[in-house]
Amino acid sequence: MQALDRLTAEGMIEGKHGSGTYVAVQIQRSLPQKTTRKASKRANNLGTKQWLSIAQPFTPGIPALDAFPKNIWAKLSSRWARALTISELNYGDPVGIMPLRAAIAHYIGSTRGVVCNYEQVIITSGSQGALATASMLVGDYGDSVYIEEPGYVSARNTLKLCGLKLIPTPLDKAGIRTSDMEQHKAKIALVSPSHQYPLGITMPMKRRMELINWAHKVNGWIIEDDYDGEYRYDSAPLPALASLDPKGSHVLYIGTLSKVLSPSIRLGFIIVPENLINQARNIRSAFDRGVSTFIQAVLTDFISEGHMSLHIRKTQSLYAERRLSLLTALKELDLKPIGSPAGLHFTVPLDIRLDREISQVLANKGLGGNPLSQYYNTKQHIKNGLVLGFSNALAHNIKKLEINLKNIIK
Ligand SMILES: Cc1ncc(COP(=O)(O)O)c(C=O)c1O
Fold first, then answer.
1. Among the listed residues 52, 175, 192, the one whose alpha carbon sits nearest the alpha carbon of residue 131
2. What percent of the chain has pLDDT above 90?
């Protein structure tokens, strides 16, 4: 009763004789109403539908969530929850904590052949944060950027948001067609040479050298998205493109923990040339002030104590098995994926029905698998197909997909 008296005294509520107590009329008017005012053009330009990676079996790009090393992660997390010092609870360096940058410099040197000093490693929130930072670091509003056609939709959106103009560039069997890159004056190219997303092409050495020569000739930048380069099933993974440009003068290398560990950790990194470290720090500071120190500390121990290499070795053989089971099931249906034996996904070309319809039918059954056509920026080159992630697919999921695809294509 006391509370009601107080609210009445403050004019928040009013009594109506014989009817009850109501929120005062003037308060009701100031409550948020639905607005018809629009968001900015750049927000609307991102489209109405986003094909977000909801983790269903076969959704591309999701690692084996069932194989996440929970026990060791819990042990390291509880160690750090107790150990964080007063200064570690303060704002951290926006480019990341030094021990993690050092651990990543060492890790990326041994796994991907990219030699750098720890100061060149800039910690970001996933590759998404890395790409935003990289495009602001080397691009100005209105600058053009060559992107792969088809290519990664989220990367496209990031570049657009950062004010860059996209130049979709067709691919051939070796990846992005460097011969088409003379026509425009763009000086930035975003590529995924280890395992092109979504077609799975591994760029051969000749094309890598052509790309690096292009960057030197135009004095431009290659942004290398090496999102799943650790996984290769027929041989050792090829070194990253950045390893061919040792001074790092023309390649900005982007890596992520999303595929080798978990996308929920939201941790990625860029390797930048030494003369750009301070500008990268300023961008990180202005943009989001950096990534959680706690997660960085846990990850530092995870890498330095050898758990990361062990986890990659384990998942490498797990994914090889899952990939083979899916290939066998698809063979029964006369479906043959394209691309190199690498990464976490492959693409199956289809010409029987619109791939968006097929993908929707599968989604209704709780199965992932993205339509290939969604990855094209222009209508001109569109092909139909299904992009299937095998890393997060269990045996019973594969059986279920086989049965459903059989019904669709019969
Ligand atoms: C081509 C490509 N790059 C990068 C990523 C990883 O993004 P993030 O590190 O932001 O999770 C993905 C995830 O699906 C991807 O497909």
1. 192
2. 79
- pLDDT for the residue 32: 65
User: What are the tokens at 87?
Assistant: 């200064």
Average pLDDT over residues 19-46: 78
The ligand 1 atom nearest the CA atom of 256 = 9
The Cα–Cα gap between 363 and 140 comes to 39
- List residues bridging with 342 in a β-sheet: 232
Per-residue pLDDT for 146 more than 80? yes
Ligand 1 site residues, Cβ closer than 6 angstroms: 53, 61, 126-128, 152, 192, 197, 225, 227, 256, 258, 263, 268
> What's the whole-number average pLDDT of the chain?
92
Domains defined for the chain, CATH in brackets: 83-308 (3.40.640.10), 311-409 (3.90.1150.10)
In angstroms, rounded to a whole number, what is the distance separating the alpha carbons of residues 58 and 401?
A: 9
The distance between the two most distant Cα atoms of the chain, rounded to a whole number of Å, is: 87
Instruction: Pick the residue whose CA is nearest to atom 14 on ligand 1.
Output: 61
Nearest to 325 by CA among 250, 404, 395: 395
Chain segment 7-22, per-residue pLDDT in tens: 888 888 887 777 778 8
Q: Whose CA is nearest to atom 7 of ligand 1?
A: 127
pLDDT on residue 6? 84
Dist. CA 396–CA 200, nearest whole Å:
25
Closest approach atom of ligand 1 to CA 267: 9
The reported pLDDT for the residue numbered 9 is 82
27 pLDDT higher than 80: no
| Nearest atom of ligand 1 to the alpha carbon of 197 | 1
